[in-house]
Specification:
The complex is a heterodimer of chains A (384) and B (202).
Chain A: E1 22-25, E2 30-31, E3 37-38, E4 42-48, E5 58-62, E6 88-89, E7 94-95, E8 100-104, H1 135-149, E9 154-160, H2 162-173, E10 178-184, H3 192-207, H4 224-238, H5 241-247, H6 267-280, H7 285-297, H8 308-312, E11 322-328, H9 336-348, E12 353-358, H10 372-383
Parallel strand pairs in A: 5-8, 5-9, 6-7, 9-10, 10-11, 11-12
Antiparallel strand pairs in A: 1-4, 2-3, 4-8
Helix pairs in contact in A: 1-2, 3-4, 3-7, 4-6
Chain B: H1 10-18, E1 24-28, H2 34-43, E2 46-51, H3 54-62, E3 66-69, H4 72-75, E4 84-90, H5 99-109, E5 110-118, H6 123-132, H7 156-165, E6 168-177, E7 180-182, H8 187-190, E8 193-200
Parallel strand pairs in B: 1-2, 1-4, 2-3, 4-5
Antiparallel strand pairs in B: 5-8, 6-7, 6-8
Classes of the chains: A alpha/beta (384), B alpha/beta (202).
Amino acid sequence: MGLETPLDHGGEAGKGATDAPNSLGLSQPLALDSGQSLTRVTMAYETYGHLSAARDNAILICHALTGDQYVASTHPRTGKPGWWARMVGPGLPVDTDRFHVICANVIGSCLGSTGPASLAADGEPYAMRFPVITIRDMVRALVAMLDEMGIDRLHSVVGGSMGGMQALSLAANFPGRAERVLAIATSSRHSAQNIAFHELGRQAIMADPDWQQGAYYGTGRAPDSGLSVARMAAHITYLSEDGLTAKFGRRLQDRDVVGFGFDADFQVESYLRYQGSGFTRRFDANSYLYITRAMDYFDLAEEHGGQLAHAFAGEGRGAQSRFCLVSFDTDWLYPTAESRHVVHALNAAGAPVSFVELAAPYGHDSFLLDVPALDRVVAGFLHG
Amino acid sequence: MAEGVTALRPDLAVIFRSVATGSRVLDVGCGDGALMAALRDHKQVDARGIEIDGAMVERCVARGLSVVQGDADRDLAFYPDGAFDYAILSQTLQTAARPDRMLEELLRVGARAFVSFPNFAYWRMRWALLRRGRMPVTRHLPVSWYETQNIHHVTVSDFEALARDLGIGVERCWFFTGTRECGRGGANWRAEHALFELARRG
């Protein structure tokens, strides 16, 4: 698929409950950090708003670990509104009346872009034959997609959490490709604690007998229990202790006294189980393995000689983008110190950078939720 | 004078006039970014800021300015030597944990520095202290001693002595009473505010 008139989804009416995304095939094989390459790569994407004649108003939004391209349109599998519908749309901070917004499913995922559930050249699903990918590989695929779309320069690249890692990686590896870089609730590297939580999730999936060494496609069984536990553990890291306490406390679920058993006595247990099982209906377990691995491998400094500042100001090329980093005071997954670490590197590189730590009660998930100050910062940075 | 410039506080207006066109500026404690915006819009200055108050940083970002929320006592260290032509510290020196180290840092990251501060030897302050025997609360320093952020009360003479001790040269200085500039004579008595342009000696 080549250049086409940008699709303009009129709000939620845009996508029906089909699983047939907009997609394009990359014309070149994708060389990966592992040394392997991925051929016949499909990128599934959504766009909003119109590309200007000068092709200078494109914003690439990068999604998080379990996110997808349905940033502001109805999710085809869940029927729920887009994951950032409160931020992206006509008159919203990422204003689709003004900007041409592109969001693509990352490679390794399972919403239409090439991932472990996709068919390999032999007609069978890749499963664990899918190569291990990195955040930089995801970004390479996104940039190759932009090349196919004929978008040479982005007005902005925007992302939260893993999306923020992609935004930073794009700035570091494709200097000048984006005029503005907005990275929210993110980090330049995965900490031991981050890796530990991901490993817990992966082990839960791989310990599930239905995982079948990853070759569960078409068997009628899938590691839903394992994936559900992985999601439950991860979900805890997305919330704050105060948030959990306020929402659930020690309140019991549908009972007045504890049951002296292992049912979901507490509301928080019931909530987590619901989150876990809901997740298995929209996400592929192998994708979860591959994407968490990519995040664990992420260390932007290591890619650039051990100096994070070098990532943003390689020899003689200088800083070519304006940066804005945002953290949340209750985010213990990617705490403020991680954003500051990036900011200090950008200062050392002489890059124009803004940074603000916002107060919000929701922990890491704050970037997805109702935080008016974030709306103001996003709008201000994109329009200023 | 263009819009946005006329509204600047007197010390900032002097800094605005004195900064060279097209230079690189770090505004430490930049507040809502009024000076940075004026320098960018009218003098093609590449301006960066540090501000501790997140709400102020939001306003700066909305103006398209590059401002980092941070604490100057700690975060100046992450800027490379000589990254700026000017480092600006307006009405903030008296809140620094170590004003002497702050001055050294300003002149490490900037070739020159503009530093303004309230003069605690202003005659009204002396008089209030002498007469009432209590820490003065004035229109420009309206906060009581126990809640003020001003932890290092400094006078014009103190500042000149510190600069001398640190081997820092005073290039120019300006003094203000209220919103008006006043002369150098008897500044330690007569000036409510002082502004110094500094450069490292030798």
